[in-house]
Design goal:
single chain, 120 residues, mainly alpha, 6 helices
């Protein structure tokens, strides 16, 4: 008898609460710090890549469960959707939000990985 997988029932919010459960800003900062500690890694990581890396490197050790590649990909997708929704909500809730210098540096690392200059 085949075991039924319920991982597809995960929503972005339920995945975040179960597997991460810290503020998005803290999660992204930890991901950036982790990349900085591994000098062989390319520093050009998007939010999606950070979530995928977290899903594949951290989640299997959280509850000692064996996950299929499909499950880890889906969890990573849900985590990324949660992060994107978080940033979209901030923009909608407070379009005049003034970012601190620390927030600007974090956003620059997230949305401008590797310090690439935007052509003007």
């Amino acid at each position: 008898m085949k075991k039924k997988n319920n991982f597809r029932k995960l929503t972005p919010e339920s995945a975040w609460l179960h597997y991460v459960n810290i503020p998005v800003e803290d999660f992204l900062e930890l991901c950036i710090e982790q990349v900085d500690e591994e000098p062989n890694d390319i520093h050009a990581m998007t939010v999606d890549e950070m979530c995928r890396r977290y899903a594949f490197k951290i989640i299997p050790g959280l509850d000692k469960k064996l996950y299929s590649l499909e499950e880890l990909e889906y969890i990573a997708q849900m985590l990324a959707e949660y992060c994107h929704a978080f940033f979209a909500e901030i923009s909608e809730d407070d379009p005049d939000h003034v970012y601190t210098e620390e927030e600007l540096k974090l956003l620059d690392e997230i949305f401008n990985p590797g310090g690439k200059q935007n052509p003007t």
